Amino acid sequence: MTGSTPGPVPATAPILTVDDVAKTFTMHLQGGQRLAVLDGLSFVVGRAEAVVLGGASGAGKSTVLKLVYGNYLADRGRIVAHAPGGDVDMATAPPRAVLAARRDAVGYVSQFLRCVPRVGTLDVVAEPLVARGVDAEDARDRAARILTRLSIPERLWSLPPRPSRAASSSA
């Protein structure tokens, strides 16, 4: 193939394929008891899809996310991130391939997110784009589109105004 570039990726193309994944935890402080959390989990996420993991506390939602991100190893199955540089099986890939997939295709925000003090939401969302060389204003525009798509009200994008020193001292 000479001089050809890949065409656009169809909107229906998957970005993530999870196939027959199983995960068991060993409770070492409870006599080695084994806790089967997931068994036979399979799903596909398309490029234009928004997916919600729902369920009761302890159902395995966080485990699924940590498996997809490569923080946990699966006991069985495949977790394929269809990244720009090629497919990466997060369940079996070497550490450098997992890191590359995290940089290019897979993101994870813990439910225990610690927000950056004194930095507004718009700038937090734009920061990874700026770090990859995108112009700051373009990154903020793209971040605004993402926040709008997520239905996050614009009033929450910036930090609240801080009172002046005089106003603070009189309070």
From TrEMBL:
GO terms for molecular function: ATP binding; ATP hydrolysis activity. It comes from the Bacteria. Pfam families: ABC_tran (PF00005). Residues 38-154 form the ABC transporter domain. InterPro entries: ABC_transporter-like_ATP-bd, P-loop_NTPase. SUPFAM superfamilies: P-loop containing nucleoside triphosphate hydrolases. Belongs to the ABC transporter superfamily. This is Alpha-D-ribose 1-methylphosphonate 5-triphosphate synthase subunit PhnL. It comes from Clavibacter michiganensis subsp. michiganensis.
